[in-house]
Amino acid sequence: MATAFFSPTFTLRNSTSIPQSRRRSCLVRSSQASVAVETPSSSTTDLLLQVKDLSAVIAESKQPILKGVNLTVRHGEVHAVMGKNGSGKSTFAKVLAGHPDYEVTGGSVLYKGLDLLEMEPEERATAGLFMSFQSPVEIPGVSNIDFLNMAYNARRRKLGLPELGPIEFYGYVAPKLELVNMKIDFLNRNVNEGFSGGEKKRNEILQLAVLGAEFSILDEIDSGLDVDALQDVAKAVNGILTSKNSVLMITHYLRLLEFIKPTYIHVMENGRIVKTGDITIAKVLEKEGYKAIS
Ligand SMILES: Nc1ncnc2c1ncn2[C@@H]1O[C@H](COP(=O)(O)OP(=O)(O)OP(=O)(O)O)[C@@H](O)[C@H]1O
């Protein structure tokens, strides 16, 4: 499920603070030179996310996974990250979300001008960062609507807005179900409990629509979806895109990128972004595989 960068589930699961030692990064630089792949610069004022030389290891084993990632995202852009299995895509996403399994060892991440790496996962979420995970978690005993209401109110509090009570919130959320083609009774079911794979993915996008995130990371949102569900999910994502928010999608397949048009496609290899371009990259990969660009 998603929480954030606003993945509400993530916030729930990570309600304990991450030790300071796991959160910081800028002091230690990766020993490996990074491959800087900056997207063309327009202006610095519309910068949403700026990742520079980001390195990270698995917290437990200290195994390096990210080895100098560079990425710049501006408002209104859609970025797709592709790459072979095990190249570090999900790790990159989870590090941005503040996942405690990883320790940042170098580099910096600015989000809306703030040092993202100094923020707790909950702070990242309430600052409009949403993350949808490959395998959304189930939360027994918590209904979807209560969960969404809680996450939505957390964001409203952060924005200095009054919270919505259950009735008002129902009025807000019900029309959004249409966006993802979900039946109203999904609101009363426990979060993701007994949901099919496709229903879980739709539920992720419902959360995204409800939370109105500014930066959404969608990790393989297309996996396990049938053709109709893929179109529904893509339509919903397109429906929430504005000139003010941005999306980072991790995917293996051209089919998703034909529905949600990316501004840039990046290829990750061995913990770095090694190539950036347009949809042509995905077409070449589809036809010839990674050997064509390695
Ligand atoms: N918590 C962890 N514990 C042990 N190994 C991990 C952990 N997280 C990531 N890894 C390892 O780091 C490498 C990168 O994993 P990651 O999930 O980021 O790859 P990916 O590019 O998203 O792959 P895929 O396309 O298969 O989803 C893999 O070898 C993986 O086994």
UniProtKB/TrEMBL annotation:
One Pfam family here: ABC_tran
Record key words, sorted: ATP-binding, Nucleotide-binding
Residue ranges annotated for the ABC transporter domain, each copy included: 49-293
GO molecular function: ATP binding
Top-level taxon: Eukaryota
Record-linked PROSITE patterns: ABC_TRANSPORTER_1, ABC_TRANSPORTER_2
Gene3D superfamilies: P-loop containing nucleotide triphosphate hydrolases (3.40.50.300)
Record-linked NCBIfam families: sufC (TIGR01978)
PANTHER family recorded: ABC TRANSPORTER I FAMILY MEMBER 6, CHLOROPLASTIC (PTHR43204)
Protein name as catalogued: ABC transporter I member 6, chloroplastic
Annotated organism of origin: Salvia divinorum (Maria pastora)
